[in-house]
Amino acid sequence: MNIMKEDQKKIEQLLTNVVTHSTNFFNELDSRPVAIQYYQPSKDQLPELGIGANQTLDYFVQHYSNGLSASAGARYLGFITGGATPASIMGDWLASVYDQNVSSSQDSVAGTLETETLDMLKELLKLDTNYSGTFVSGATMSNFVGLAQARQWAAHHYGKDLTLEGLFAIPSIKLISGAPHSSIFKAASMLGMGRNSIHLIPCQENQEAININLLKEFLEQNKYEPCIVIANAGTVNTVDYDDLIAIGKLKKQYNFWLHIDAAFGGFAACSPLYDHLVAGINKADSITIDAHKWLNVPYDSAMQFTRHKSLQVEVFQNNAAYLGSSIDHPDFFDLTPENSRRFRALPAWFTLKAYGKEGYQTLIEENVTCAKNLEKKIINSEYFELLAPVNLNVVCFTLKQESVTAEMIKQFLATLNQQGDVFMTPTIYNGVSAIRAAFSNWRTESKDVEIIWKSLLHAVLLKKS
Prior knowledge:
By secondary structure, this protein is of the alpha/beta class.
């Protein structure tokens, strides 16, 4: 018996069963534990004969479903994780059903839809229309693509083509930043420039924004070399923003590539209350934006934008006769490390069409309101200490006691997260072991802040007892 063919005949029933299970999960997110302690399920073995799709779903629900957390819910404040909007889930399911490989724009309308989605995102984020863009898997890959172009740009300064000659052909390239995300170091490693090529410029006092005067001094000292400046539009600890306008003005004096990491902070552009934070973003040569953060689409999804598509093609062109590509007529597989690409644009297209500018303005402003409500509670608390003002949607705080250690924070978070009402992650800010609470989910409301606060206080009392 061909079980695949049998399941094909039952596809409506199979998908109906998945819808029922998914709906139950979706509706139970508020009551489901936000974090679940790791456990090791019994080891599965590959069956000689398959059990079919329905029985596999039943087996999954019985053995694994309860071990999955409500990370898509309102009180998951770890990292910067947005929960998928209803419309984006629709698009994501259809991306699987249609199963398009958007490596080429020639064999379906999928490529056109991706381009239209990127145009809508540029409008939402107030990016110049002459940026070109592509979807990638996440902010790490977006930073990688942007810095790969920057590396090629630097090589052109020396009259070299790194795609042909390799890094041995040029001197070491200097990357400059104030408070770079960890993925910047990872990208520098993958690109062969090396983590040690990143030069950290001190930030302004009690901020994570780069000191512009010290940046200018560094550029002056290295004015005969092509440099890569990596600016932040939203740091992970305090959502601080570099002065993008001032950095953009320095481009008139010095020879550098400006890459802006706006993975989630770029969404400040959605609100007239906060769009001043990203003023100057259009001075960038390349920009990172993450979709599975504040756009609230399912993992994995991000975008990279560039003013230098020709450099992008030099780096990533895929010379294969059977694909029909050429450097004069590049396609999607000539623009990123991937040849095969999931239809990532479809969930983003669905959510942008469904909720529009107003929907995302509301999402951003409500998340910021929640963060500021938690900030007020911490300021007035005898148990916690705020480490930095809340600039946008992340609250950075610590325990109010002397000599807080990383181990103390680890133990406190273990107690907090195991209660299942909220999930937060540790960090270090200005040398102090701390806690991050990142609000980025479309579901989160003021009532969730009250639940979060009660859970924090309960965790304190548990640690004291």
